[in-house]
Specification:
Elements lengths: L3 E6 L3 H13 L4 E7 L3 E3 L4 H5 L9 E3 H4 L3 E5 L1 E6 L4 E5 L5 E5 L2 E4 L3 E3 L7 H4 E2 L4 H19 L4 H7 L1 E5 L3 H23 L8 E6 L10 H14 L2 E4 L3 E5 L2 E4 L4 E3 L2 E4 L3 E3 L2 H4 L4 E2 L2 E3 L12 E3 L4 E2 L14 H18 L16 E3 L5 E3 L6 E2 H15 L4 H13 L31
Parallel strand pairs: 1-2, 1-9, 2-5, 9-22, 11-18, 12-13, 12-18, 13-14, 21-23
Antiparallel strand pairs: 3-4, 6-7, 7-8, 10-19, 15-16, 16-17, 20-21, 24-25, 25-26
Helix pairs in contact: 1-10, 5-6, 5-7, 7-8
């Protein structure tokens, strides 16, 4: 008998963990193929630190070929799945079509930015789901602060130094917290160089009644207190009504001149999920507790792409978080091995170990094992958690943190990403479609 082929679509938290687990447990019996648009796994929780100039971009990228030695990497973006023929169709980075046959399939395509029907947002907002967006935002903040410091027009100065972040979940809260520190660092630098006095304004908006609405209220209050003390204008139960190139109009009618609208409202499953032709629940693929797609014993789904039943809360589905995706990757790997007769299937069962939010500097908010802590201790716990969770680059990340504590931040533009090359991406989580501009 020939060797079975397991195809994994997507190398996010779930897909990467599935590939790593299968490469150890099933490599003697099956070929593991990973289809992904890039050659790296992106450690998303530290992306705000890349945008703030704390971490170098490569620190949050983990080489797929370097850390998955028994996995074949195919660079490409999945375009469809033929369930009857058991083939995945994809397009490689040079636009060529290809296909992969499979004996077992894991769909872990992740998520993209969730766009709301608000006039002007798609044209003028910037998302925060991938490395190109983080690099663009870092350059953009530095550029706007430099332009603000050397203009004689007071209204232009105020608009360029105003940054509006929509969405006060994990990402938006951390982007606002780190972004304010970067802008303040730019003020100190431009003043030394003879620039105008600039007072950077950061606004954080959310329709929810509090920041971090998905977390315990004590953590929410901690984050809110830190943000306000730092000078962030936190507005709850409020969002954007309209966006233009010159600013935004809020739902209360207030007009805010700005050149920077940062969209962190939330995510939705990758569009491939709706195109596969399988049943969905709230936009996510229906799976059983073992992460298997009903009526297709060879197809599995996990992470943000799957509506995984939460066995600890009957009738509910697991949240679209990295914590769930990481652990679902291990479970789906075991269950795919069981499908091939190499293991015993087990349902996914998650036990919450707490959450951690990095608020920049030495500040944080965390509840490890449901023990709420804040301040410098929470900052240490948060960074320790990330070092423990990262599959690689721990020494380099720690070195960057040490340099940040000992030296001034390198607040300069690097010009890696053109201003028009990173649109608000609601179609594919990683590819930058620069060719369309």
């Amino acid at each position: 008998m020939g060797r079975s082929r397991i195809v994994i679509v997507g190398a996010g938290f779930a897909g990467y963990q599935a590939a790593r687990t299968l490469a150890r447990t099933a490599r003697k019996h099956a070929d593991v193929v990973l289809l992904n648009p890039t050659d790296y796994f992106l450690y998303l929780p530290l992306l705000p630190q890349v945008a703030a100039g704390i971490l170098e971009p490569r620190r949050v990228t983990v080489s797929l070929t370097g850390t998955l030695p028994h996995t074949r990497l195919v660079l490409g973006e999945a375009g469809g799945v033929d369930l009857d023929a058991r083939r995945v169709h994809y397009t490689d980075p040079e636009g060529r079509a290809g296909e992969l046959g499979y004996d077992a399939l894991i769909l872990s395509v992740g998520s993209v930015s969730r766009l709301l029907p608000i006039p002007g947002v798609a044209e003028h907002a910037r998302g925060f789901r991938g490395l190109p967006e983080a690099l663009f935002l870092r350059d953009h903040i530095v550029q706007q602060m430099e332009l603000a410091a050397y203009t004689e027009d007071e209204q232009e100065r105020r608009a360029r130094s105003t940054f509006v972040v929509v969405g006060a979940g994990y990402t938006g809260t951390e982007v606002a917290a780190h972004g304010k520190l970067l802008a303040d660092a730019m003020v100190r630098r431009t003043r030394r160089e003879g620039g105008q006095c600039v007072d950077p304004r950061w606004m954080l908006l959310d329709v929810a009644p509090r920041v971090l609405p998905e977390l315990d209220e004590r953590l929410s209050r901690t984050a809110d207190r830190v943000l306000r003390a730092r000078g962030v204008d936190v507005r709850t139960e409020l969002s954007v009504k309209e966006a233009t190139s010159d600013g935004v109009v809020l739902q209360n009618g207030e007009s805010v001149p700005t050149r920077s609208l940062i969209w962190c409202v939330g995510v939705r499953p990758d569009p491939l999920v709706s195109e596969v032709g399988l049943p969905t629940e709230r936009g996510r693929l229906v799976v059983d507790p073992c992460l298997n797609v009903p009526d297709h014993p060879e197809v599995f789904a996990c992470g943000d792409a799957a509506a995984v039943p939460d066995v600890t809360q009957p009738g509910q589905f697991t949240a679209m978080t990295a914590q769930h995706a990481w652990r679902q990757g291990k479970t789906v790997a075991r269950n795919v091995a069981a499908h091939l007769g190499l293991a015993e299937a087990r349902p996914y069962e998650h036990h919450d170990r707490g959450f951690a939010v990095d608020l920049g500097g030495i500040q944080g908010a965390a509840n490890p094992f449901h023990l709420p802590i804040s301040g410098p201790l929470a900052g240490v716990v948060t960074r320790g958690y990330h070092l423990w969770s990262m599959p690689a680059n721990r020494v380099r990340v720690a070195a960057d943190w040490l340099l940040e504590a000992l030296q001034r931040r390198q607040a300069v533009q690097v010009g890696v990403v053109r201003a028009g090359a990173v649109p608000l991406d609601t179609a594919s989580p990683e590819l930058v479609r620069a060719s369309s501009h």
